[in-house]
Amino acid sequence: MKLITAVIQPHALSAVADALREHGASGLTITEVAGYGRQGGHTEVYRGAEYRIDTIPKIKIEIAVRDESVEGVVDLIVSTARSGRIGDGKVWVTDIVETVRVRTGERGADAV
């Protein structure tokens, strides 16, 4: 099993979540986060004063999937969240050593 983590633009969340639901994703975790990548933040003007914003608001999505579903889910997230502009986000995949469903005690792939 794998954990797919995606950090995307907030405006892409509903499209990505809907696409994952249609794909058959059984559940995902969504977190509001802030950070920066290559763009390193940006400057804004408020009441005539310019100030720097070092972190950009993003959405982090985490979804546990079976090994055979990884490529399809990653491709789905990337194609749905891509706008072609700087700051679209990142997706990475990590191994899950163990999964336990708290309610039933199921373990492994059955817990997803």
UniProtKB/TrEMBL annotation:
Gene3D superfamilies associated with the record: 3.30.70.120
Keywords per UniProt: Nucleotide-binding, Phosphoprotein, Transcription, Transcription regulation
Taxonomic lineage from the root: Bacteria, Bacillati, Actinomycetota, Actinomycetes, Micrococcales
The name this protein goes by in its record: Nitrogen regulatory protein P-II
InterPro entries documented for this protein: N-reg_PII, N-reg_PII-like_a/b, N-reg_PII/ATP_PRibTrfase_C, N-reg_PII_CS, N-reg_PII_urydylation_site
Similarity comment text for this entry: Belongs to the P(II) protein family.
Oligomeric form and interacting partners: Homotrimer.
UniProt xrefs under PANTHER family: NITROGEN REGULATORY PROTEIN P-II, NITROGEN REGULATORY PROTEIN P-II HOMOLOG
Biological source species: Brachybacterium equifaecis
